[in-house]
Amino acid sequence: MTHTAHTPASTRPVRRKTTLESDGLTGRARRARTEPMAVRPLRDGRYVVETDGGTYVVDVEARTCTCPDHAIRHTRCKHLRRVAIEITRGEIPPPGHRSATCAVCGDETFVPMDARGPQLCADHEHHTGDLVRDRETGSLLVVTRAMERRADETPTETGKHVSEYESNVDYGDHEPVFEAVYLDSLPADAGLAELGRLKTYRFPASRLSRVERGFVGTRSLGERLARA
């Protein structure tokens, strides 16, 4: 079985000025797309926009920019528009978020500024209540929580780290660990509140493949199965 257990962190190039398609727009909306700009997020949630005419600081949440167009005319300038476009396109993180590297695939992802430990992209993240499948055994499990710690830093009940088990050698030591319970062990009335009271097992993130988001949610497992 082949996994991306040892995917190196991606090397992010320095952001250079780029242009976008005009999409038939005019005025500031057009200039926001067609003029060369490089947008770079700052740690305080604002953005630096470098243009051929100067460098400005944009605050998306306050809807301000340090450029003369905004300062004098109080308009939604091309710099504010460009930052909004790049956030919508997923090219830069939204306010309150920062760039991180997915511990499974190495792709860039955006996480809360205060996020700690190894991070995952949307394709490899798991959430409490998700139905997942163990790639090694084929068993179905329900995720109970994210440990937010690496597999080589997370012990199990036996004292061994998750990464030390032979069944986990094909998965990255640097991956975050998730706790999960076997689907067959869940009582029919199990809901999110009950998941943490059951016997759990720990797995590296990529050993669990997603089957269904929110399989156990506000409704109990019995209610879900009755509607299936």
UniProtKB/TrEMBL annotation:
Coiled coil: none annotated. One of its GO terms (molecular function) is zinc ion binding. Residues 56-88 form the SWIM-type domain. PROSITE patterns: ZF_SWIM. The keyword Nucleotidyltransferase does not apply. The keyword Zinc-finger applies. Residues 1-10 have a biased composition (Polar residues). Keywords: Metal-binding, Zinc, Zinc-finger. This is SWIM-type domain-containing protein. It comes from Haloferax mediterranei (strain ATCC 33500 / DSM 1411 / JCM 8866 / NBRC 14739 / NCIMB 2177 / R-4).
